[in-house]
Automatic annotation (TrEMBL), chain A:
<dbReference type="GO" id="GO:0016651">
    <property type="term" value="F:oxidoreductase activity, acting on NAD(P)H"/>
</dbReference>
<dbReference type="Pfam" id="PF00346">
    <property type="entry name" value="Complex1_49kDa"/>
</dbReference>
<protein>
    <recommendedName>
        <fullName>NADH-quinone oxidoreductase subunit D domain-containing protein</fullName>
    </recommendedName>
</protein>
<dbReference type="InterPro" id="IPR029014">
    <property type="entry name" value="NiFe-Hase_large"/>
</dbReference>
<dbReference type="InterPro" id="IPR001135">
    <property type="entry name" value="NADH_Q_OxRdtase_suD"/>
</dbReference>
<dbReference type="GO" id="GO:0051287">
    <property type="term" value="F:NAD binding"/>
</dbReference>
<feature type="domain" description="NADH-quinone oxidoreductase subunit D">
    <location>
        <begin position="285"/>
        <end position="354"/>
    </location>
</feature>
<feature type="region of interest" description="Disordered">
    <location>
        <begin position="414"/>
        <end position="436"/>
    </location>
</feature>
<dbReference type="GO" id="GO:0048038">
    <property type="term" value="F:quinone binding"/>
</dbReference>
TrEMBL record, chain B:
<dbReference type="Pfam" id="PF00146">
    <property type="entry name" value="NADHdh"/>
</dbReference>
<feature type="transmembrane region" description="Helical">
    <location>
        <begin position="282"/>
        <end position="303"/>
    </location>
</feature>
<keyword id="KW-0472">Membrane</keyword>
<keyword id="KW-0812">Transmembrane</keyword>
<feature type="transmembrane region" description="Helical">
    <location>
        <begin position="175"/>
        <end position="195"/>
    </location>
</feature>
<comment type="similarity">
    <text>Belongs to the complex I subunit 1 family.</text>
</comment>
<keyword id="KW-0520">NAD</keyword>
<feature type="transmembrane region" description="Helical">
    <location>
        <begin position="6"/>
        <end position="26"/>
    </location>
</feature>
<feature type="transmembrane region" description="Helical">
    <location>
        <begin position="133"/>
        <end position="155"/>
    </location>
</feature>
Amino acid sequence: MAVNWLHKLASRGSVPVFPVLGKQGDGALRHLALSPQIELVDSPRHASVLLVAGEIPADRFEPLRRVHDQLPYPFTTLWFRSEPWPHLERVARIDDLDDLPGALVTAHLELMEGCRGSTHRLLPDEPPNPWEGEGDFGQGGEGMMGGVPYGRPMAMNMADDIRDGLTLDSLTFRLGPFFFAFPPGMAAEITLQGDLVQTWQTQFAPYPQSLDDIFFNARERPVPIAEVELARARHHLHRLFHALHLAGLENVSLRTLRLAHGLSTSSTLDGLRRALSRSGFFRLTAGGGVLGPEQARMIGGSAARAAGMADDLRSEDAGYRRLGFSPVCQTAGDTHARWRQLLDEIDQSLHLARLAERDRVHTERTGSVETPRGPWSARRPADASALFDELLPGLEWGDALATVASLDVAGVADQPVGTRPSGESRAVRGGTGNDV
Amino acid sequence: MFSELFLPVLMVIFMLVVGGYAVAVLDRLVASALGTPQAGGIWLAPIARGAWLLIQHANATEAPDWRAWRLAPALYLALAAGGLAVVPWSASLVATDLVTSVVLWGSVEALATVVIFLHGWSANSLLALIGGYRYVALGLSYILISMFVLIGVALPAESLQFTQVVASQEGLWNVIRQPLGLPLFLIVGLGMTFWGPLNLADSTDLAGGTASEISGPPRLVWDMARAAMLVAFSGVAATAFLGGGLGPWLPGPLWMSLKMLAVLSVLLLLGRLLPRLAPERCVTLMWVVLLPLSFIDLVWAGIGALL
């Protein structure tokens, strides 16, 4: 009786969801962030429901199995626009974004009330590699250092400190591809001394990102500049939302997302800019990550303009010139400069959109377009995540993650953001044939 | 026997439970006022969350230091209880009226560093470990500032007993007598309880830091302990600077509750309004700005005591 009462009570709270992002899964994440019943959590240990959003490439299946097994019992999974693995039991697939929050709430409710059993583990509960330690504490039998128990090196002093000479034990580990602070799909092998990044090797590049179809259309034919600029501002606001969450400014990050959600030519950035300045976002938070000229050129777009390069394909379009467009730039080229640049560009985009809507101005140049990710002439903006390998060593952990958030490195996918599938949410039959 | 042993224990347990719940509700109220809608109702949501954590299993990591990992949340809760035990609600209503209660609070701050590191280290997991490192790297700077500021309030009282510190504020509260004291102590409080802008141990960039690997009942205890430590800190701040239970018309415990709620609200509001400081800026702020200010506060208090 008491247990039932406890379970009923537990089902009354918000639903802790750990999102695993596949291709084009980030839209679901933003939709859920605005749903009051859903609490998106950053660690799988803090979740009741594992949401697999978007198609997961086969080379990320193994990490997905490991993340899946990190959720504490009782837990359940839900797949959004992604085909559940056939051997999973009682797994629901949802295709309609509007149905997703409700489906997550129902899954949690059923789990708490005992109508749905917990999902089972996929991997055996044993170390990933055989025990190879020797000595009293498995350290390898060489004094206090060395050894590779369970196939991973122990933290030990293997290299000089690259900052201030205070040498600590180096700790090497792999993170991603579902770590919330990385671009979706990215994984890296990192060596830290204390919280200082000593080496960084990007192992999986992030998934190519899908842009709004207006940028694809702009390459083919003249399109209304108002639409292009609103899509650009929305893309930048989505990135800012993510960075503000990382910085611990939860309220402002949701405000940013709401602004992006209802963005129109009458929207203004003044309130958000004021809130960011007053909070000290540009002065107090983690920064660093200065791009050299070559690195800035490699990424292109707003990151290059934040480093002082006034390259922007919009300058070559007669439509934009009629609206008085000229690129805005920063000079410092660091994380804070990139966020200032982004805010200036959002402001500029909203201003251009207002003028273009009033005068009904269209783009005039086809064959190339300045996307929010950078210039797209002959080739789409390509992945630049390898840049992290040279940019992040020497930064503290917080600065490194702030730098990663401030750089839009994922390449552009060959398809625009998918149109929403029509039809209601549906359940598919799992491997054991249980309907959900 | 009852009044000497059981009553103080009951009083501390009552404060742990009610205080922890009050922090959870207040934080949701602040978030809601700042534009983040809360699911499940502000009053019920903390209880629903507690029930969920009781149902959720405590997970395992690979080869953790089990004893330390399971004990750390309980030890942190015990430290918060120790802090609450020396907070006087009125001249006579105090769980333990030690003559060295200010020193005991100092030891709570110092031991918290050990327990928080233990929590991060014993999980045998990367992000939790970094959280533990960070707290140790910054903890000393909080504690030094806190000690100077608390010595400042002990001087006019000529005592290390919180009830005497309250009595010394009959004529003038320390918040006015030593204007630097309370602002400095509030910043120390955010650091010591790793809350909001100074939450570098359990931060978002570490996916929860020392708490990134815990679930179920241990997480419930850890969350309760963090909230209780915030309440204990608010109690000490209200005692040291806002005259504790002193005030006209209302009974002492009510005045004390109101003052603690005011301090809690300020801390929770700062926690929601400010971004997390970069660790390096945090160290600079503590050692270059706040520590010299705490010296000035101490000299100010000393001169005031001599005059």
